[in-house]
TrEMBL record:
PANTHER family: HTH-TYPE TRANSCRIPTIONAL REGULATOR BETI (PTHR30055:SF234), HTH-TYPE TRANSCRIPTIONAL REGULATOR RUTR (PTHR30055). This is TetR family transcriptional regulator. The lineage of its organism: Bacteria, Bacillati, Actinomycetota, Actinomycetes, Mycobacteriales. It comes from Nocardia caishijiensis. Residues 40-100 form the HTH tetR-type domain. PROSITE patterns: HTH_TETR_2 (PS50977). Keywords: DNA-binding, Transcription, Transcription regulation. Residues 63-82 bind DNA.
Amino acid sequence: MSDLVRCPLRSGSRAGDTIEDVANLGPGRPRLEQRRRRGTTPRAEILDAAAELFTTKGYANTSTRAVADAVGIRQASLYHHFAAKDDILDALLAETIAGPAELARRLHAEPEDATTKLYALALFDVRQLRGARWNLGALYLLPELRTERFAAFRRRRDELRGHYEQLAVESLTATGVSEDACVLPFRLVETVIAIRSDDGPAEADRVIPDAIVRIVGHQGAMDAVRVAADALLDRLSD
């Protein structure tokens, strides 16, 4: 999602905007109240507020005015950063896959075996899905995601799924397990979304990657895979 400012107001105001709102769209405009959201930029604050409302109140039940109110800005000011509510949703969805997708691309060039790389990817992905302030993965179930508007996000998610399946196939080839199992790792990672919704245990951070490497046929000591994957993630984070 681009950070470029987009203003949708062409020949008049949006529904609910006052004349003052339209006339004062400049970046120096004062807030309605003091900053109360996490984030170092207004855009980040908008995303934080929307993430909370979309995951607790529902996407369909949340208006851009409600998001603006939760940030403490005018609705017209929100439109400086996002032209519409679905742009906010798209940005939030992109956050959930950007990190693991980038990691997956880097992992393919690393010398470690496929099982170690698969464990590292799953561990990173589970941690970021579980560690986000709001359970953004729950937004994957929205019916709106099946529309053409979110086709680009679906493609990016499919690319991430493809990385999982490639690493799984490489691991399966080494262990002799049926390739039918290659589709399971990606699905298992996303079970953390439901676990989080149910206030499940933090141990899921390790339980899910452990289960994934067992599914692809690893029979050795789990500690060795964990140590190798942790070292790999540490090296790449540097």
